[in-house]
């Protein structure tokens, strides 16, 4: 009803082309017309003319502005989204880059694309490449970075609502962040199950198999199934963990500041999370390049949940370009927290040296692999939907 009135009064004004009336379409561009239609059918909630600009929470659009805000009473719950960029300083190899040892190791398996490793159909036929990668990436092989300790620092300061990570390296836990504070959106090596009967296996059980270069088979499953046991890493076409769906709505609603670190926000549904916070909630990007910006086409249509760092309407998004570690140090310096951060890093290093238990020595994964290549191809019982890796959830390494 009020929608109807608004439309009528708007069309009675002197700006027919800008009004939400599809009937007076003579002078409208196709985009205006589309926007009018969307507005009329409530597919888009607002345009700038009829909405008050959201409250501006940052005193300036800069890293200093973000630091001032973090130190204020208004900023209690910080949500962090992180991706591969937070782990590059740890030396985690990019298995997609030719020339790295890992990529070359995997080439002998004749993978059409390195990401086939995360195709469940491929895995059931030939699990060896995945377990080669798993051995390489297994938690314990790599040290946490400054960026990971920054997460721990936010937790210690009582400001961390949750970390949403795309990484499967487990380095958030290595840095000491409480498991309750982490959502491993693309899964984890900490739990494992049989791909057929879903029986669970412990981390220790799996670790032993992986480091002995044995393919882990279910102790219950009989012939006729693959009986493979797989860490709960999310493969293409697999659903994200239930924990992701259980927590994301409340976390992003409660979020006072969103920090996006080391991800180019290309993988869905993870990338869409940036739009899940309130319209006034400030967002800080720490990354090598800008990303997550509003698609101009979507903006014209009235959907505006992407980041806006540079336009004259920018009011809450700040970019800190560079490596994650440098960005975190820079921010901590402005917060007066740099000493605390460096102490966490130093303590972590010390602990690492003293721990012999979980730090498994890296071994040359090339050994013994050839003998495993003649695995019987298991009967394919389930036909899996093959998803486009760009569109699908994918483990981000
Ligand atoms: Zn089983």
Describe the structure.
There is one protein chain. The protein has 397 residues and is an alpha/beta fold. The protein has two domains: 2-50, no CATH class; 63-361 and 363-372, TPP-binding domain (Rossmann fold). 31% of the residues lie in helices and 11% in strands. The protein is built from 13 helices and nine strands. The strands form two sheets. A six-stranded parallel β-sheet has the order 3-2-1-7-8-9, with helices on both faces. A three-stranded antiparallel β-sheet has the order 5-4-6. The radius of gyration is 25 Å and the shape is globular. Mean pLDDT is 78; it is low at 1-25, 44-49 and 356-397. The structure holds zinc ion. Zinc ion is lined by residues 194, 196-197, 199, 218, 220-221, 227. Zinc ion binds at residues 194, 196-197, 199, 218, 220-221, 227.
């Amino acid at each position: 009803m009020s929608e109807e009135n608004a439309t009528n009064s708007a069309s009675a004004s002197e700006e027919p082309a800008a009004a939400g009336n599809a009937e007076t379409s003579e002078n409208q561009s196709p985009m205006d017309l589309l926007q009018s239609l969307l507005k009329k059918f409530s597919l888009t909630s607002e345009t700038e003319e009829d909405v008050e600009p959201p409250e501006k929470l940052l005193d300036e659009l800069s890293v200093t502005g973000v630091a001032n805000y973090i130190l204020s009473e208004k900023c209690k719950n910080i949500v962090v989204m992180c991706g591969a960029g937070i782990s590059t300083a740890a030396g985690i190899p990019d298995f997609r880059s030719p020339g790295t040892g890992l990529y070359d190791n995997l080439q002998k398996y004749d993978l059409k694309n390195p990401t086939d490793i995360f195709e469940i159909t491929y895995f059931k036929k030939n699990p060896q490449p995945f377990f080669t990668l798993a051995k390489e990436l297994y938690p314990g092989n790599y040290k946490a970075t400054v960026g990971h300790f920054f997460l721990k620092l936010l937790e210690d300061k009582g400001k961390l609502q949750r970390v949403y990570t795309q990484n499967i390296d487990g380095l958030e836990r290595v840095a000491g962040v409480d498991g309750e504070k982490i959502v491993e959106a693309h899964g984890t090596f900490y739990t494992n199950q049989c791909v057929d009967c879903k029986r669970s296996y412990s981390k220790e059980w799996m670790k032993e198999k992986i480091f002995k270069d044995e393919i882990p088979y279910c102790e219950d499953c009989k012939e006729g199934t693959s009986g493979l046991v797989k860490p709960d890493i999310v493969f293409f076409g697999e659903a994200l963990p239930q924990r992701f769906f259980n927590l994301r709505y409340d976390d992003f609603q409660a979020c006072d500041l969103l920090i996006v670190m080391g991800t180019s926000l290309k993988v869905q549904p993870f990338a869409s999370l940036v739009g899940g916070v309130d319209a006034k909630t400030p967002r800080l990007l720490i990354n090598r390049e800008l990303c997550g910006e509003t698609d101009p086409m979507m903006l014209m249509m009235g959907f505006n949940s992407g980041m806006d760092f540079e336009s004259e309407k920018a009011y809450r998004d700040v970019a800190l370009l560079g490596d994650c570690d440098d960005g975190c140090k820079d921010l901590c310096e402005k917060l007066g927290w740099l000493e605390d951060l460096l102490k966490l890093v130093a303590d972590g290093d010390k602990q690492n040296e003293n721990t012999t238990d979980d730090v498994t020595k890296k071994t040359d994964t090339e050994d013994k692999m050839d003998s495993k290549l003649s695995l019987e191809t298991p009967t394919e019982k389930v036909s899996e939907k093959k998803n486009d890796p760009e569109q699908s959830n994918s483990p981000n390494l």
